[in-house]
What does this fold into?
Amino acid sequence: MTDIRRVTVLGAGVLGSQIAFQTAFEGFDVTSFDIDDKALDAARERFAGLADTYRREVSGADDDRVTDALGRIASTSDLEAAVAEADLVIEAIPEILELKQDTYRRIGAAAPEKTIFATNSSTLLPSDLADSTGRPDRFLALHFANRVWQFNTAEVMGTDRTDPAVFREVVEFASEIGMVPIEIHKEKAGYVLNSLLVPFLNSAAALAAGGYASPEDVDKTWKIATGAPLGPFQMLDIIGLTTPYNIMVHGDASAQKLAAWLKENYIDKGKLGVASGEGFYRY
Ligand code: NAD
It folds into this structure.
């Protein structure tokens, strides 16, 4: 069992709200920080939505347990107060380097020495942020996947300055909140999951964009030949097309061509994936 009891989650957006709810659901006291009252109102709606989702989709999530989870989440827009008593801070604020660095500088000054900081960043390396924390030995990445209650990997990745004991504690904490920890031994952009997924999805897009095969036939090939339940275009529809677009547009010249194809044929036509009712498929 770890010494972690009080967890603060910075940012109550898509991922932050899920991490906060899951952590509270597993019995921890959680403080959820977001920037102002409007963001906190949106967070309350997210938590209520997650409560419904857990009741529907998570085994053992009866009314009592879900109500208890909601009761264990305290919300605040005061950053310094949010971290004052935290054992662990999980940061899930927007993917903007300067914003994160500035936030780490502030919480580095406000949090007790014992507090561990973990970033949920998908595309930044922890070493991009380590100096701004003021405590590089107690800082690492803890990366969740969207829909944490269902896709429950938690990739743990430190820098060469992360204290191995801190790494171990965060691995154990990830298990305590119902995640399957994936230990990454060296810094790697994209962790394990996106190192596999991004090139895979880009290769699929290149086949369709180049006119080699239709999205349906690419999916059919992948599913029949490997036994996988979903093809890459079905995955893209579930992820939502704007996230892969944003990754492609910052890639090399061939990735940028794919981004343009995705934009012209799908995004500009409002075909954003499952959430918009249509992407590569209709829903
Ligand atoms: P989001 O935009 O849904 O939420 C970000 C939240 O942070 C917002 O509620 C925003 O108000 C708040 N916030 C807190 N401090 C802020 C500040 N100083 N300035 C502006 N906003 C502030 O983003 P998200 O999708 O939850 O992503 C958050 C982090 O999680 C990113 O680092 C992202 O890479 C990572 N992540 C996202 C996913 C995903 O599928 N969305 C998956 C894994 C990791």
